[in-house]
């Protein structure tokens, strides 16, 4: 004899089972249309293997299992697939999910099927796959695919096989009547399970409120060694974990499975279905369902084809809709309400409960929790429902988990007992959903964090690679330089360029560039030596780089103009922008210095250089005590000078090329010159101590440039095509030299622009070659 | 047709909070009857005043908090507080004393903390302690019991009413006497037997009248246990611990003796406290294990304060002290959930 243990808590709601036990099981018949959800079980939905329009036979597989935890679906009768579409399925949320819709043809024609006459003779895996292919999923309510439980048990030794015939929920009698009427089939199914699992003991647990069922089962189990255990009726003894505790005293570890403690648990309905599948080759296409409640005139149990609409059952049961405000699928404790009577009966549907208003009145408004502890008293899992209720209201998820919210089996005993009518289970469901959501969000957040970190790492790696490349370039440049000393013609050019660039740096190249170069050189020269405040350094650096960029931009502009390029306008804007920036930076720097150094701008190499440049032009000595305005004007003068120089260059080039825009450039030069003069006058006005002597024309770089350009124009006017080409080649060569020089400089300083420069150098050389070829052609022509 | 969408469970048990409250009120009857029998109509007058004030203050508080009056008044929780305080006060207590006590209990102890279910302290006991500290004379003015005085000297309904209004009639001049617990406390010369013999206030096991009042509350408590209004854990463990500690310190009746276990069980507010105060679900520990601990400490505290403290009766103090400790007890007595290992490190008591 098995020793019965008690579970903690539990309640004794009115059983209400007798109503539906008056009549034997009756086939509900074949409805005109069957709705078969692809997901009637826990796990992945099945995948349809039929198409709309197909004729299917009874028992034919219409959807196959997808994945390990899944179950196939079979046609419960013969007919035509008329649709595969979402329909409202039995679910607490009233949601829709894909279903296969079959219009029955009334012939109920079976597909070819055949049972296994001696299951002991076949391989166990074959047997398990037979069960799996029959689409059998836990029929007690959860719908866990049965084959999974059986295959999972093989790596863990199973001592006890438990068949659950408890049926502790009020009203439901489907298992009771099945045990009464088909005890032999259940025991036969149990034998198959025993054969598969080879447990040391097999127990069938039945509550003591089902004496007929117990008697029938005892009779059927006679001599098999299967033990029928009856125990006191108490809700929720039928919970899998509770039944295990009652029959074995073992507890399934939190988050674990019964197999962790050497137990496999199956519903008795499942056992019967397994028997049908193995011995008769019949897949799971029907089940016993109780239709009861006082709103049903004739409550009873039906053998129902899966997919039968609930309405079809209610129609047979003298259902009185006016009395019924809620329709429940399942029992009054754990069932869920249906909004739609079109939903089908599925593998887990053990009961349709249609109570009258008086029978199950709508819940009264909840009162305050009085902490009476009745909920804790009845909880079969020994939780503290009222604490969880407070935490749930306060959304304290940590506390909820600390209080083992996830061990709650949602049996509803606490809500049942709560004198304040607090819908406790509803709170727990909501909190569980919230926590799950939060966990998912957390996982998501972690994933994106990982992604971000990976990206970060990649960027760093790339930066490191770039750095390495840059170093390599630097090395290569040095090597090339060393090689260049040996000197072939090309390298001569480069060397010349380097020389020029150095010369430029030292400040005695063509006068337009000279001022800038000088300023830059002076700045570069001194800024490093002298320790300045950080800002100043930064500004100086910025100034230096801007100057460089200006030079580059001007050159590009010149080049573009030389080629009559389309981009001239863009380049011009770039030049202007850069020079504006240069001026602004300079101004900022000056201001910074004047504020830090007081009135000693002569200490500042940059300002000094500019001042010198200006002084040279205007023959004016730097003012001893310059005011802010002076500085501003000086800066403006400097930038205007630069712009003037640039404009002059442009003009010169334009003239040299006989460009149409030469006139426009000339105007620009004049205007800039005027502005410069005005600025100088202003400067002179505020620094009267330094009188402004007339500037010697030959010293004025602008005038010089104009003169040069005019000379060039005059020259080109009389030039032949060949001469022009030669001149063009010369200027191209000069530019190649310049660019090569810059490339060199860039390579030396490890500048990122080196590559761009290298490309443009290549292009220029191409152009040069082309021009040389053109020249050669011209010469040939002439000759 | 439209069906309701409702969450399971769909069935509900027969118990409801108003019903629980009414059962508690019902269960106080035997105690009230014996108090009235021995001390006259004073207790009933107390209850009358307390109920009126309680309903008035409750209505006021609900109005201020904009809660539906009928729904909350019908939960009877204010009446329970009124009954409990009225029983604890000396019979025919001054009406202002009752008003102050009920006002404090309902407005401060209950609604200031958020209403029913949110109060950390038992309102009736908190009010009792407040009154005892503020008005010690009025609070210890116990009428003499039947048996110690003649039946004619017991206050009738009118007498009690007048007395509570501070206008004692000429025919009725209330006789007040020290309670047995006072006597025991003040005694330091006589053997208990002699004290017993000398004082008319003593009855068969404990105080005259008191013992029967305690029996009355015990009966009411057993009825509530039978109706499963509360579990046995807190009251039984309180009575058990009180018995044990009284037995430990009972030396057979010397002048320094603290009284027999039976004396303590049937004296003062022991039974009333055990079944009507300690069982107050709101302010006690929530788990059964916690309640065992909670009750046990109250039992010990009751004896400790009775014997060595400043006040002759101690239930109210002991309960309030443990109200403080309830959340702490809850923290350490969370029951072991199914499928979880026992938490050794969190075990306590
Ligand atoms: S049963 Fe209801 S009122 Fe009582 S403690 Fe639990 S939740 Fe609160
Ligand atoms: S629903 Fe959860 S908390 Fe309530 S009694 Fe059942 S298991 Fe316990």
UniProtKB/TrEMBL annotation, chain A:
Summarize the subunit comment: The complex is composed of six subunits: RnfA, RnfB, RnfC, RnfD, RnfE and RnfG.
What is the name listed in the Swiss-Prot or TrEMBL entry for this protein?
Ion-translocating oxidoreductase complex subunit C
Query: What does the UniProt entry say about where the protein is found?
Result: Cell inner membrane
The record's Pfam families line, in alphabetical order, gives:
Complex1_51K (PF01512), Fer4_8 (PF13183), RnfC_N (PF13375)
Its placement in the membrane is given as: Peripheral membrane protein
Function of the molecule: Part of a membrane-bound complex that couples electron transfer with translocation of ions across the membrane.
What is its cofactor? [4Fe-4S] cluster
Tree of life domain? Bacteria
Task: Cite the entry's keywords alphabetically.
Answer: 4Fe-4S, Cell inner membrane, Cell membrane, Coiled coil, Electron transport, Iron, Iron-sulfur, Membrane, Metal-binding, Repeat, Translocase, Transport
Q: Which residues cross the membrane?
A: none
HAMAP family the record matches: RsxC_RnfC
Q: Does the keyword RNA-binding apply?
A: no
Q: For binding [4Fe-4S] cluster 1, which residues are annotated in this chain's numbering?
A: 369, 372, 375, 418
Q: What class of enzyme is it?
A: translocase
Provide the cofactor note recorded for this chain's UniProt entry: Binds 2 [4Fe-4S] clusters per subunit.
List all Low complexity biased stretches: 509-523, 599-613
Positions of the 4Fe-4S ferredoxin-type domain:
360-389, 399-428
The UniProt annotation places [4Fe-4S] cluster 2 binding at 379, 408, 411, 414
- What coarse category fits the chief subcellular location reported for this protein? membrane
TrEMBL record, chain B:
Q: Which residues form a coiled coil?
A: none
Give the EC number(s) listed in the UniProt record. 7.-.-.-
Keyword entries, A-Z: Cell inner membrane, Cell membrane, Electron transport, Flavoprotein, FMN, Membrane, Phosphoprotein, Translocase, Transmembrane, Transmembrane helix, Transport
Q: How does it sit in the membrane?
A: Multi-pass membrane protein
FMN phosphoryl threonine (modified residue): where?
Answer: 179
**Which residue ranges run through the membrane?**
44-62, 69-89, 95-113, 202-225, 232-250, 262-279, 291-308, 314-333
A Pfam family cross-referenced in the UniProt record is NQR2_RnfD_RnfE
Per UniProt, subcellular location reads as: Cell inner membrane
Its required cofactor(s), as named, are: FMN
Q: How is the quaternary structure described?
A: The complex is composed of six subunits: RnfA, RnfB, RnfC, RnfD, RnfE and RnfG.
Q: Which family does it belong to?
A: Belongs to the NqrB/RnfD family.
Instruction: Name the PANTHER family for this protein.
Output: ELECTRON TRANSPORT COMPLEX PROTEIN RNFD, ION-TRANSLOCATING OXIDOREDUCTASE COMPLEX SUBUNIT D
Task of the protein: Part of a membrane-bound complex that couples electron transfer with translocation of ions across the membrane.
| Entry protein name | Ion-translocating oxidoreductase complex subunit D
